[in-house]
Design brief:
Chains A, B, C, D: This is ADP-dependent (S)-NAD(P)H-hydrate dehydratase. Four copies of one chain form a homotetramer. Helices cover 45% and strands 14% of the residues of chain A. With 281 residues, chain A is of the alpha/beta class. In chain A, strands 1-10-9-8-7-6-5-2-3-4 form a ten-stranded mixed β-sheet, sandwiched between helices. In chain A, helix 2 packs parallel to helix 9. Chain A is globular and about 45 Å long. Chains A and B meet through helix 2, helix 3 and helix 11 of A and helix 3, strand 4 and helix 11 of B.
Chain lengths: 281, 281, 281, 281
């Protein structure tokens, strides 16, 4: 097990080549946000934009359109009820986030299944929130994970549902065993978040804290991971995922010096400045 | 009668335990916001998020959805017209706020009655604004208060309606007598806000001022009280309510050093920083 | 003719009495904002809130509800299409603003006529924008101005329409003559804004500049005048209007030290701080 | 070929004459924003407002109304589905932007054709985004460009579509040849953005960088160009276009000193301050 440290950020968040354009920094597609949880997918989308993704499209319901455009006019919109638009958006994306605020309706299951079915080997898929719960009800869907680049971002209870390992028994050994079977990267969010990679390495986080225990924190993380995977290609994607997760918590820790609770919106706003600082260390 | 002082904040706003998650900091449900007064419940919800509540759900009408998600994407939404969703949300909450911008329609009465009927002894219920007026029309509802943890936050005119004590006769002795009958904590908002507790103690506020005399100020207070009750459990809930009310006015007073009028939105934005400062005194 | 100066602000923007509540600082009703010009009435409402009005209600169409609540959740909403609600709102207001973004439809004419008909002698009415143009088409409406407290805020072209004095002939003498006939205060917005009072005094502004030549600037002024009239009662209302107009331009001038163009939103945001500074001179 | 430099900004961004009003600073009309790309036209509109345009009207669909008014209440709205309103808005504008987020539907083609047909020789027309793609499908529309003041703002792929010159063969000589045939100013956005003027001069940009490679950057540029053309008349319009393009990238470069990625919203917000600094050099 290795500790991720600040030095890793400098390695991953490199200077951009002068001759480049938004197409070089990843097309991110975020899928989620039902009538009750629209804020979740908006925060994921906004985090992706602020973390440097080239182009971000948010697939959600019309009810969330105004808030999406107001919070982050840089993001585009696809109507989650429009099958044809979803098909095209899935086709074009480099990185897909599914789950924040998606809910567990049959419509949600359907869009998730469609996403898995259409998934291309060149694409990254980050599975979070409601999508993890849906996944736990469809164990046969895991067989689609083989040879794909899939990242699960469960908290402990979601991991229990997915892995069938009760929280109290979630040791690195047991977690790694199931994770390897699943053939997905697992970012297990907890006090001391741990990342289980496909190459069997385990990365551990020593930053972050209880000022992050607030709704929307995980949604924000998905956007950061997506943006990082979309734009940073010099190193292995294991390293990039580690750097994204570290950025999220290290920035929260920095903000906790002046805030009792660190809100996702605050983290998102400070990403461009934090990433620059990290790249200049 | 005791004066609440800044030192109390340090006692209540303690360092969070390292191993904790958003579930430890309270599920707050805010109920209100009709077509005319949507801003009220949004400010209550946003105050709850910024004051550190773990999870905040706002039950309001669809017309207020976009503004809610834009102002505070961290909050979730429940449709106030959807009885089934309301039942579930009431069931799960740790702290409920009812009243900001709710209005006094028969639909408002119905949702309030449902809230009282479903109320569990483990839950806190904060009653504000329109809900206080509704309450004054249904004196028989008070009998449901017995053995519940209920906080009323009237200004003087609302307290007159509820208590039948004319403003000019609202002395501590009379207020306490009625408050004890009602079996609810009463936060009487005025110049020198006074809190009447179930244990017969009376707490008095010597901070705040007329820069707070602006619409939405009371709505904001409800969110702060809710967040504090949701997350601080080391001391009695009397102490926690005192600290929440003090935080609201002390922060306003601090902001009045640079603002002629202190707007609720300004207070809300500064809560995370103020709470940290208070916890470090 | 007198020059308004900064010292006047200190006279008007006094310390608030400790024992006071939002009801003491004025109920402002803003009427306007059709489908095309919703931003105008939102800026007027937000300016009123930020300038210290106790309670602000915005009567506009439903299409503008989300933006209103997002920009200024402290303001309440009344549906301009709901005659009954408008009647009640007109009845309760202390200060009414009509015109920003109202348009010149027959519905706009109807609501304006209703406002004039219902107007009470204790109320102030500020007439701006589209409402001035409507007024110029209904010269017989002026007879309703007698013994009312009415403030017109035309720019030069609007004043030409209302007064029938061509811009080039708008001298103080001619302006005053017509203004006295109309029996309304006239704030004539131009380079060197001039205010014609019912008592025949003329006040002149020597602050402000071309950085204010941007859409929404006049809408913002209406909100400031309304808030000042709602809360400041120690001096004559002539003095209060002068102070409001001066505040608007003096604050713009201050912001022009760091901005090539000063946007209304920027002025609004800085009102609470500017008013405090002015009161402490 | 000349390098644009900071000194040019001082030449163009002059002090405003004291006696002037919003009508002197240009009526800008922005046309775009379908259901999927609403943020694009909102950013264009907001950039125009912040860059000093006197009056900005955004012609888009109703779905984008709330976000437009919330982000920039200073802008007015015209319903893109309302042919009569569009006709009037086109008639009155001094500068028109068409394309950001417009899409390529037949409705989009129709509105674009209408714009070209109604175009007056006193007006500027900036063609961007989707409108460039539409243009590439209608080569016969170019004949309408003669004796009009048209500015195209393609990135390299869009220029390939319009000019039929493959990206790799886009040399100044070839670009200029086609541009002269088209009779339009061409702002070719790339690493080292180059501007081809009707008078055959070529201006080259040596500011900006890959921190600008993010969605919405080009939309923002259109608003800045429009505002500059609307308000600055002392020099040739070639000079004004150069200054607008330079402002966009030079401000981004300034912000890149503290941000890894510079978001369009950040550029927009800082325009009033940057323009003042440039005018004072």
């Amino acid at each position: 097990m290795t500790e991720i440290n600040y030095q890793l950020l400098k390695e991953v968040i490199h200077s951009r080549p002068l001759e480049s354009h938004k197409g070089n920094y990843g097309r991110v597609l975020t899928i989620g946000g039902n009538l009750n949880f629209g804020g979740a997918i908006i925060m994921s989308s906004s985090a992706a934009v602020h973390a440097g993704a080239g182009l971000v499209t948010c697939a959600t319901y019309r009810e969330n359109l105004s808030a999406l455009h107001t919070i982050v006019p840089e993001a585009m919109f696809v109507d989650l009820a429009n099958d044809q638009q979803i098909t095209a958006a899935l086709e074009q994306a480099d990185v897909i986030v599914i789950g924040p605020g998606l809910g567990e309706s049959s419509a949600a299951e359907k869009i998730f299944k469609k996403t898995l079915t259409q998934l291309q080997s060149r694409q990254f898929l980050i599975i979070d929130g409601s999508a993890l719960t849906i996944l736990s009800h469809h164990q046969n869907w895991f067989k689609r994970f083989a040879k794909q680049k899939i990242i699960l971002t469960p908290h402990q209870m979601e991991w229990q549902r997915v892995s069938q390992i009760p929280i109290k028994k979630q040791t690195d050994t047991r977690n790694l065993a199931v994770q390897q079977e699943l053939q997905a990267t697992v970012v297990l969010k907890k006090f001391g978040t741990t990342i289980y990679h496909l190459n069997r390495t385990i990365a551990h986080l020593n930053v972050g804290g209880p000022y992050m225990a607030t709704g929307g924190m995980g949604d924000t993380l998905t956007g950061i991971i997506a943006a990082f995977l979309g734009q940073f290609h010099q190193t292995t994607y294991e390293t990039v995922v580690d750097a994204a997760v570290y950025t999220h918590s290290a920035l929260a820790q920095k903000l906790s010096a002046t805030n009792y609770v660190v809100l996702p919106s605050q983290i998102i706003k400070n990403l461009p400045n934090f990433m620059l600082s990290a790249s200049l260390v």
